[in-house]
Write a structure and sequence with these properties.
By secondary structure, this protein is α+β, with helices and mostly antiparallel strands. 24% of the residues lie in helices and 21% in strands. It has a two-stranded antiparallel sheet with strand order 1-2. It starts with a strand and ends in a 12-residue tail after the last helix.
Length: 42
């Protein structure tokens, strides 16, 4: 799942299910973020 985390509240807003590299590329393009800006949290 990809989305955005509020730095103050810590709330995570789910935006898109990432199943493969094509989905990930679509997420980056759609939300205009760079791969280097992505942080993975488990």
């Amino acid at each position: 799942m990809a989305g955005f985390k509020d730095p103050v509240s810590g709330k995570f807003d789910e935006m898109m299910l990432i199943r493969d590299s094509h989905d990930f590329a679509e997420f980056l393009s759609l939300y205009q973020v760079e791969e280097s800006d992505i942080q993975r949290e488990w």
